[in-house]
Write the C-alpha cells for this entry.
Amino acid sequence: MQQNGLNESGSLPLAGCVVVERSRTVAAAYAGRLLATMGADVVMLEPEAGSPLRKAPPMLDGGKGHSALFAYLSVGKRSVVCDLESADGQRVLERELDKAHILINDTPLAERIAQGLAPEAIDKRFPSLVHVSILPFGASGPKADWDGEESNLMHASGEGFLLPNGFSRELFPDRPPLKIYGHFASYQGGSVAALSALSAWWAVPEIGGQYIDVSVQDAMLLCGAFALQRLGDGSLEHRATRSFRYGGVFEAKDGFVELLTLEDRQWESLVKLLGHPAWAADEAWRDPLERSRRGNEINHHIREWMARHDVDIIVKNAQELGVPAAKYRTPADVVNGEQERSRGLFAPATLTDGRQADVLLAPYQFRCTPLQFGGGVPSLGETGQHVAAQEVTP
Amino acid sequence: MSQAAAPLAGVRIADFTIHAAGPFATHVLSQLGAECIKIESKTRPDAFRKPHAVYGRMTAATFDQVSANKLSVRLNLKKPEAVELAKRIVAVSDVAAESFRPGVMTRLGLDFNELCKVKPDLVMLSLSSSGQNGPDSHFAGYAPLFGAWGGLGWMTGYSDGPPVEMRHVMDHSAGLHAVVAMVAALHQRRRTGQAQYIDLAAREVASAMIGDALVEASLGIEPVRPGNGDLAMAPHGVYATAQPDRWLTVAVRDDAEWRALLGVLGQDDVAADPRFASVQTRRQHQQELDALMTQWLAPCNADETAVRLQQAGVCAHVSWNMQDIADDAHLRARGSVTDVSGPNIPKRAVVGAPAQFSKTQDVGIRRLTPALGQDEDYVFGELLGLSSSQRADLEEREVIL
C-alpha cells in the first residue's frame, strides 16, 4: 500500500486521547482495549485486589498462572490502584479524570454514588468529559439492575436461541442451544462503548461532554438485527430451520470445511469442484428454488465427497473456481497463518510473568499510520500506588 | 428526530458498500447522525433489492435495516462519467466506504489514491473478507467463512461436536469494528488534517473474538472448546424448563450466588453437600451438578424463575426468540427496539438506537429504506449542482441508471 505521501508523522489515530477505564467486565475492558490499540492512553483504575479480569479464564499454566483473557484485554494499557471507597482513591480518580477525555465505567448502578461515579456528579465536576456507562442491560429501563454474564446476554439478545444451526443441530437435535465462544456479546458491547465514546468526543467542541448509556444486550441485538428484520418479514427464526438449505459445515478427511454457495455461478463452479458427478447432471438443478427444496440431497452428496478429500486441497481448488469455501482453522492455525503473518495481525507482547506471547494487535489496519503496541500487559498498579498517592497528597 | 441533534451530525459518507457487513457499518454511522449517500445502480442492485431464495424471500425487501437512514443515488460505474460523478460525491464527503473484493475499486478508478486526489483528507474504509493484501486476499467469503478462517467457528460448538457456522452477527460485528476505526480516523483527521485508509478484514474480526484463545495458542497451549460450560463458573449452563423449547441460562460466579440459587430453587439442604461446597469442588463435580440443575429446573417456569433468580442476585435469563425481543418492555423503554411503518410497510419492530446519549439524543432510525435513486434531487441537484437537463441527459445515456 502506497502511503500516498500524505503522512509523515506516524502519529496514531487517537494520539493525545486520554481514557480512564473502571472495568470489571469484559465489555468495558474491550472498549478500553480498542481505544488503546489506536493510540489512546488508557489508564485502568483497579481496586486494591486488582481487576477481577486478572483471574478470568482461560488461565495460562493450568489455572495457576496468568489470565490469557486479561493479557489480551489489557495489553498496552496502564494500571493505577485506586480504592474508590477511600479519600485517597477519590483524589486519584479526580486527578485522572482531570486529564481525561473519556471515562469508561461499568460500575453497577447501586455502587456509583458511593464511588463518586454518579453521572450527574461527574458531569458537574468534568463538563467536557465523555462518560460512557456500559452495563449488561444498560443503566436505564426496567431491567437496568439485572446482572448478566456472557451466556445470559447472548441469549437475552436472541442469538443464543438461534445456535447452533446446521450440522451441529443435525447431530444433536435435543441439546440445549449454545452460545458463541468466549465473550462475543461483551465484545460487541465494548465496541459500541468505544464507538459511542469517540462519537460523543467528536461532538465535544459543539456541545461539551455528555453521558452515554450502553447496554451489552442492546449491542448484541444490534448485531443480530437481521433476525428481528426476519420477524418483520413474517418469519420467527429458529435454530432448527435457519440453516442454509445446502452448504454449511462438512467433515473432510482431515478437518472441517465451510462451504456456502448463494449465487447461480457459484453452483456451477461447485459442480465443477465435485468433478461433474452424474447426480448433478440433472437439468432440474439449474433452478435455485429446486436446489433449495432438495438441499438435503445436495448436502448428502457433498458430504460423501468431502469425506474423501483433504481440507487444504478442497479449499484451494474451491477458491480457484470461485466457490466460497474455508477451512475451520484452529487457534494454532490462525496464530501461525501465512495470511495473518503477512498482514502483521500479531505483535509480541510481554506478559506480567515476563514471558512473550503473540497477541492480536487489532482487527483493523490504518494504512497511513500503522498501529503498534505500546508495551506489555501491565502489572497491578505498575505506575505505583505509593507514587500515585504521594502525587495527590496535599 | 433531527439529524442535527446527533453526535456525528455534519459528517457525510459516500457509501459504495454492498451486502451485509459494509452496509451495516455505514448504517450505524447514519444512526449516529452521519449523512450517508448510498451509490448504487439498477444493473447491480444490492441484496435487499433482489429476491433472496435462500431466506425464502421471493421479492425485494420492503424494509432493510442496514439501508435505513441512507440516501440513494444511481450511478452506473461501468461508465467513466459515472465514476467522475462518484468522485465528485466523494469530494464533498468526509468518508468513503466500500466492501467489494480487493481490486474492484482500483479497476473502477476509485481506489484510495485516486480518491485522495479529489479529497486530500479523505477517511476511507475498505472492508473485505481477508483484507487488501496477503496470499488469501482474493478469497471470496460470507459470514460463515469469516468465522471459519478466523478460528471463531472452531472454538464455538459442543465440546464433542463439530465447529459451528457463524451467521449475520459475524458480518455485523465486522461492520461495528469498522465504524470504531472510522470515527477514530475522523479524530485523527481533525487533529492532523491527514487522510486515512482503513483496511478491515472480517476474518480478523472473527479472530479478535477469540483473542484469549490465540494468546494461549501462541504459547503452545491448545485452547479448549467449552460449549455451554465455563472454565470458572459452576453451575453455568442452559437448562430445559417446564415449557417446551423455553430454556433458562444460569451463571453462578461464587458461593454466595450458589446459596442464593439453592434458596430460590428450594434446595437449601444441598448447601451442606461437600461436593458443591466451593467453586473448585462444583467444577470437579460438574456433571453431577448439571444433572441436578437439569432435574431442579425441569418443572420450573423459565420466565418466573429468571426474575426470582435475578432478585436473589443470580445471573439468569431466558433464551429469547425474536418475538420475546420485539415485545420486551425494557428494550422498548431504552429505544433499542422501536417500531417503524410506512406506505408499503405495516408496523414492524426494528433495532433502534445503539446507545442512549444524554445530549445528542436523536440517535437511531429517522428514515426507512430508500427507493433506488430517491435522493438524486438533493445529491445531484443541490450538492453537485447538476441541472435537470444535465441529469436527464446523463439518464438518457445510462450514466445515471
Remarks:
- Chain A touches chain B through 163 residues (CB under 8 Å).
- The domain at 248-330 of chain A is CATH 3.30.1540.10 (formyl-coa transferase, domain 3).
